[in-house]
User: What shape does this take?
Amino acid sequence: MEIITLKQALIPASLRSASISAFGFPPPCLKFHPANHGRRLLMTRAAVAVEQQAQTRVSLIRIGTRGSPLALAQAYETRDKLMATHPELSEEGAIEIVIIKTTGDKILTQPLADIGGKGLFTKEIDEALLNGEIDIAVHSMKDVPTYLPDGTILPCNLPREDVRDAFISLSARSLAELPAGSIVGSASLRRKSQILNRYPSLKVSIIDVVLTCYSS
Assistant: This one.
């Protein structure tokens, strides 16, 4: 008398590493006589279909972000706040973090201000949002253009952290103590404008840098 094993005969190769008992079939039910296999065949196929659906489930919310440490921290903070507010999103796989490489990430040899300024770190993410590839875009506010792309809105902000900039010097304790003509290095046009507005006697040199702890 031939004995047929459900796990071997009915489950696709891609799912054979799974346990039938996980579908509600205890191990003793894995073997049966061919004459009585009709009902169990249908039940097993249904169980396999459920497992396949679970494995291919589409995330409820896809969050688009850059791949830098700060950008990912902001994206995960957004995810955690969504999960805290909507418990149904706490299920594994309900929220997906989608990393998108932007123009600003690809250009490493030219000053960013010389090739387009605003939008260099947001354009591709916004395009993914408009194309339906993601559901939410998480940006650093400093990277967001003054005018948002048509079809997008800025509905909320994460709670702000410390907004102060750091001043580092070998001798002076503040910008006010620097002698006229001193050169201040910065990676931000915004900071350059603020410094020159307050201290017009200083010079500001824009330096493009990538800091792991700062890049967003």
In short: Residues 1-32, 211-216 have pLDDT under 50 and may be disordered. The longest strand covers residues 61-65. Residues 74 and 161 are 11 Å apart (CA to CA). The two ends are 67 Å apart (CA to CA).
